[in-house]
Design the sequence.
């Protein structure tokens, strides 16, 4: 499973949460630079040259000075940078060493090193396996969704935060490589057992599509797990390939975001151009627009919950504000901030908050999230969504 070492100390929750969102969802947080990524730009090179010195409440020079002082004293420059960012109060700020950022970049392509499971805390307070990637190490070992996760490498999971459990699954710098092993203690009913898994390089398809009924005009469910590279095109292809007259149930639940460019591309499947969102970078306002030619007549319902974040919230807000979709579920997470990456001395990279997104109607997402049009929680959300879609004439 993607994740990252959970750091206890100055960065603690802030860095652990930010990195978990990145790796646990196989995504990268929205990297809105001076100009959002273009087709002729590539990864770090584009990001590095689009960034100036001042980044949010703490600037690059201050971080660079802290790194230099730490390394002169024989200490970790990355740890020193993390401490500076932590003091800045930037909730989503993070510092990555070279290896971490390489994983970050690979996550943009929907690939990661792990065992192929995701975890969550159940209503009873237990950490359970919430998903198993087909063909991955966990799947081959017989791990199933719903299994209890009791120990990781002998460490009791207990009441540890899920982010910390993810970190244990991911392993530290020396142990996270492809082929490294991790021992899981699992439970299923009255059975308890341990299994040793070897981490592998895994790829995840961010978009899955299925028809909800047997009728040719049955509604189509499009589940977007994360907005990694290519996700927007996959959504457009799924809409284009849906039967005529069939409604779309767009499932963005537990989608922790990804590339803003992909969310905008996905919006173009449902909008005929027009505003998707505005955002600011160091006080300068920019705007994001959908491409023209989207399907504006097909009934559309969007499913959201507390795990719908960042780029997924941006898409939700656009479809809701412009009256294109009925949103169903529970209030979204509320991450509407813009992070910008900057290369640091020694190869580390800092991602600091430089602005915030707003929906077409001017609503800020940060801290407040999006309230759906129709409230529903848990398994009931999809049922309610299908009912709403049927009422819109979108099939069943």
Sequence:
């Amino acid at each position: 499973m993607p994740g990252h070492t959970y750091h206890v100390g100055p960065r603690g929750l802030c860095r652990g949460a930010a990195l978990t969102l990145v790796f646990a969802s196989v995504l990268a947080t929205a990297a809105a630079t001076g100009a959002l990524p273009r087709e002729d730009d590539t990864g770090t090179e584009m990001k590095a040259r689009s960034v100036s010195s001042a980044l949010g409440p703490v600037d690059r020079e201050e971080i660079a000075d802290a790194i230099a002082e730490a390394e002169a004293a024989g200490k970790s420059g990355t740890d020193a940078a993390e401490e500076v960012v932590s003091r800045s109060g930037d909730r989503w700020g993070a510092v990555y060493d070279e290896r971490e950022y390489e994983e970050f970049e690979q996550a943009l392509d929907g690939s990661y090193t792990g065992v192929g499971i995701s975890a969550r805390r159940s209503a009873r307070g237990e950490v359970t396996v919430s998903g198993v990637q087909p063909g991955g190490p966990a799947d081959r070992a017989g791990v199933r969704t719903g299994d209890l996760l009791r120990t990781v490498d002998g460490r009791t999971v207990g009441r540890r935060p899920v982010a910390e459990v993810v970190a244990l699954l991911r392993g530290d710098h020396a142990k996270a490589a492809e082929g490294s092993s991790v021992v899981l203690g699992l439970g299923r009913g009255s059975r308890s057992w341990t299994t040793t898994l070897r981490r592998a390089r895994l790829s995840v398809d961010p978009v899955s599509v299925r028809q909800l009924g047997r009728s040719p005009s049955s509604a189509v469910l499009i589940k977007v797990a994360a907005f990694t590279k290519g996700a927007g095109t996959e959504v457009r292809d799924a809409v284009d390939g849906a039967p005529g007259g069939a409604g779309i149930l767009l499932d963005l639940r537990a989608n922790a975001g990804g590339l803003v460019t992909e969310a905008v591309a996905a919006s173009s499947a449902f909008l005929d151009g027009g505003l998707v969102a505005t955002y600011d970078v160091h006080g300068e306002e920019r705007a994001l627009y959908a491409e023209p030619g989207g399907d504006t007549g097909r009934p559309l319902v969007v499913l959201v919950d507390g795990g719908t974040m960042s780029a997924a919230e941006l898409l939700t807000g656009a479809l809701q504000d412009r009256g294109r979709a009925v949103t169903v579920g529970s209030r979204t997470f509320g991450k509407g901030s813009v992070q910008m990456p900057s290369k640091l001395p020694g190869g580390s990279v800092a991602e600091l908050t430089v602005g915030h997104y707003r929906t077409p109607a001017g609503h800020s997402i940060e801290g407040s999230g999006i309230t759906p049009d129709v409230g529903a929680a848990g398994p009931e959300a999809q049922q309610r969504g299908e009912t709403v879609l049927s009422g819109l004439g979108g099939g069943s």
About this structure: The radius of gyration is 21 Å.
